Amino acid sequence: MLVKWITSIRHGSLKKFSGFWAILRPMYRSLIILFPGLTVSKKIGPYGPFKLNRRFAFSNFDAWGGNHNRGFEDCIEAARGMSCVMDIGAHIGLVTLPLSQVISESGKVYSFEPARANQTYLIQHLASNHIDNVEVITDLVGENSLESVEFFESSNDSGMNTIALIGSRRGYDLTQKRQITLDKFCDERNLSPQLM
Prior knowledge:
It comes from marine metagenome. The chain is an alpha/beta fold and about 200 residues long. The chain has helices at about 1-10, 20-30, 70-80, 95-100, 115-130, 165-170, 180-190, and strands at about 40-45, 45-55, 85-90, 110, 135, 140, 145-155, 175-180. It contains 7 helices and 8 strands. Strands 3-4-5 form a 3-stranded parallel β-sheet, covered by helices on one side. The N and C termini lie far apart (about 35 Å).
């Protein structure tokens, strides 16, 4: 109840006090290290609730699907009853988790996420919610299959990891990742994706 109230004021009437939240955020994140198994129950748009890492306690995922994510709910509903769905750039699972709940009983979600920090949260969120119809693929997806591609990634969860050189200016770490094509991935596994 307290978390819900703080989240509502953080993203509502007190949103304009960003300096206040900038001070509280690191304090909270330092404190939660003491409780490694703690999760928070959060809805992602109208779906869930899902158990998420305590790091996201004050994230406003209830509003996910508004603003720049307007196609979110249409995407999830389009996957309803399907048996092969792909989430490319799965991040921490904000699309993968709801997809896992709406696909057919024998269906599978293939979640592609090359960034290590995002993978950690994605895998943790799947385990916390006892979801076993998702396979996490840790390769980059691109036009060509390549053994080594420069990839700039944040040491924290981020939706801004990139192969573009601009990543070096953001202070992201330069790593090397294998890149695969969706055609080759699907051919090797005899998959016919119904939604990507």
